[in-house]
Amino acid sequence: MSNISPVTGHYVTIEVDGLKYKVFYLENGTGQPLVCQHTAGCHNHQWRGLLEDEEITAKYRVIAYDLPRHGKSDPPENVEWWKEEYRLTADHYANFIVALCDALELEDPIFMGSSFGGNIALQLALRRPDRFAGVLSVEGADYSPGFYLDWWQHPHANAAQVCASGVWDLMAPQSPEADRWKTWFYYSQGSESFKGDLYFYSVDHDLRGKLGEIDGDQCPVVMLTGEYDYLTTPADSARTAAQIKNGTFIEMPEIGHFPMSENYERFRGHLIEALNIVQGAKSTSA
């Protein structure tokens, strides 16, 4: 039996909002595309459990990308990006994801994102319901204030240690210790982008009063949130889903803010349930 993973990596060139990016992504599987966004300040390694899940990749082409400035995706190629502060906006974030799906020529993709990726999932359902077969908002809500803080990059702090340690108590104590330490390790490598990501998460993302405009028939929305998430609590996600036409909420016991990396085996059962809900909703509306 080969020890070589079936997961493969590629680069794709994308132009969006006048910026040119070389974007790295991992993929595995065949079938309907399932496009996966990592959490703020992290990278696509968070989705390795899903990428190597034979049951899911038998039905879905799982694609997990590194957002520009994260992992193996560099900042933009055609501007002097180092002369401006990085602050991710809802407009650019949504435009980038649509451009990525277009560049990869994906038909009827399902989008899944966690944390600030869960929030952009809601933005996509509102802005481009025609482009996605459904969205899975993991640890997402209509509004997530209070986390855009200067001390994520304070000169008196070790930013890598601060960012990594800041995620520790967002994980469930029941999650395997090795997986919690891996999640901590992932965050020790992404401190430069963390604060800019959180500009979107806590400042520019605000769908209060707009959730009723999301057409859950055209683009089904399923929200999944872990019991131990105190940034976006299960109550926050449940409240959000209740305001979306045909929105669905799944609470995940004994999981925290990083379900796909801190405890994939527990998360996968909820993920399969969510995918079945999307497929059922689309077949009913067809």
Range of helix content: 25-40%
Low-confidence stretches: none
- The number of helical runs is 10
Oligomer: single chain
Order of helices and strands: EEEHHEHEHEHHHEHEHH
Query: DSSP strand (E) fraction?
Result: 15-25%
Gap between N and C termini: 42 Å
Structural class: alpha/beta
Give Rg in angstroms. 18 Å
Give the overall form: globular
Largest sheet: 8 strands, mixed
Strand neighbour order, sheet with most strands: 1-2-4-3-5-6-7-8
Average pLDDT, to the nearest integer? 92
Using DSSP, what is the number of strands? Answer: 8
Task: Write up this protein.
The longest helix is centred in the C-terminal third of the chain and has 22 residues, at about 265-285. The radius of gyration is 18 Å and the shape is globular. It has ten helices and eight strands. The model has no long low-confidence stretch (mean pLDDT about 90). The protein has an eight-stranded mixed sheet with strand order 1-2-4-3-5-6-7-8, with helices on both faces. It has about 290 residues and is α/β, with parallel strands linked by helices. The chain has helices at about 50, 55, 90-105, 115-125, 160-165, 175-185, 190-205, 235-240, 260, 265-285, and strands at about 10-15, 20-30, 30-35, 60-65, 110-115, 135-140, 220-225, 250. This is Alpha/beta hydrolase. GO terms for molecular function: hydrolase activity. It holds the Pfam family Abhydrolase_1.
